[in-house]
Amino acid sequence: MLDIHQIPVLNDNYVYLIRETESGVTAVVDPAVAAPVLAEAKRLGWTITHILNTHHHGDHVGGNLEIQAATGCHIVGPRADRDRIPGIQTEVGDGDHVNFGQAVATVFDVPGHTRGHIAYWFEQDNALFCGDTLFALGCGRLFEGTPAQMWHSLGKLKALPDETQVYCAHEYTQANAKFALSVDGSNVALIQRAAEIDAARARGKPTVPSTLGQEKQTNPFLRADNGVLARNIGLAGAAAVDVFAEVRARKDHF
Ligand code: ZN
Ligand code: FE
User: Fold this and answer.
1) Which of 8, 16, 129, 240 has the greatest count of CB atoms below 10 A from its CB?
2) pLDDT tens digits along 18-75
C-alpha cells in the first residue's frame, strides 16, 4: 500500500513523497527543489530511497542531484530523455514495470509536453503520477510534441479506471476551469466542478488529486471526441485530433 504525501513548492508545483508501507521504500516524484523535500521526509520519518522523474524540466528534476547526494537514493526516469535527467540510473519506457517495495508501477510513454515524458501508474493503489501531461481540467503545453502525439498520449491515460487518482505536478486548476468553461460552458458537471474549485481555493485547499472519472467528464482536453464541445468551437463533425489541436491552441492564447 502507498502512503502519498503532497508537498507544495515554488509557485504552483506539487512534489510527492510516496512510501510503500510494507517495505518502507520511499520515492520523491519530480523533486523541483531539494531542501523542502528533505525537510518534509525528515519530519515524517521517511528515508528517501528513490526519485521518480516524469520529464526533464527544471521544475521536475531541479532537486535530483542534491537529494541523491544527501540520501544515496536511486533515480528512475525516461529512457527517451536520459541525457536530460540529472543523475539518472534506471531508464524506463512504455510498458516497463518499476518495482517499488510491494508495489509496482507501470510506465507509459506520454510524449507531447516534452518528447520523453513518461507517467507512472500504480494500479493497485489507483494512483497516477502524470507530471505535466494531464492536469486537473488541463494538459501540458506542447513544447516538444504535436497535437496528434499529445492526443494519443492522453488516450493512454484516459483508458485507465475512473477511480484513478490523478497526481499532477501543478496547481493550475482554477485558471484551467475558466478556460474549460469557455469551450464547454454547457457541461453541467464542469459548471459544478468549477464552483467547487473556486470554493476550495478560497479556503487555500489543493484541488489535486482529482479522479480520472472527473477528468473524463469535465477536462476539455480529454473531451475532444465530444460532439457538443466540437460544435461549440465551430468544428462539428471534425476529427477528435483536430478538435484537440484547436482547444490546445485556444488555451495557449487564453
Ligand atoms: Zn514541464
Ligand atoms: Fe512543470
Assistant:
1) 129
2) 999 999 999 999 999 999 999 999 999 999 999 999 999 999 999 999 999 999 999 9
How many Å lie between the centroid of ligand 1 and the Cα of residue 23? 31
Peptide bond preceding 78: is omega within 30 degrees of 0, i.e. cis?
no
Report residues of the chain scoring pLDDT below 50: none
The predicted pLDDT at position 24 comes to 98
**pLDDT value at residue 64:** 98
Amino acid identity at 213: G
Structural domain boundaries in the chain: 2-252
CATH of 2-252, one of 3.60.15.10, 3.30.110.30, 3.40.50.300, 3.30.750.24: 3.60.15.10
Write down the pTM of the prediction: 0.98
Cell of 157: 491515460
Distance in angstroms (rounded) separating the CA atoms of residues 226 and 158: 14
Report how far ligand 2's centroid is from the alpha carbon of 150 (Å).
16
Catalytically active residues are: 55, 57, 59-60, 113, 132, 170
- From its phi and psi, is residue 93 left (phi > 0), alpha (psi between -120 and 50) or beta? beta
**For residue 168, how far is its CA from the centre of ligand 2 (angstroms)?**
9
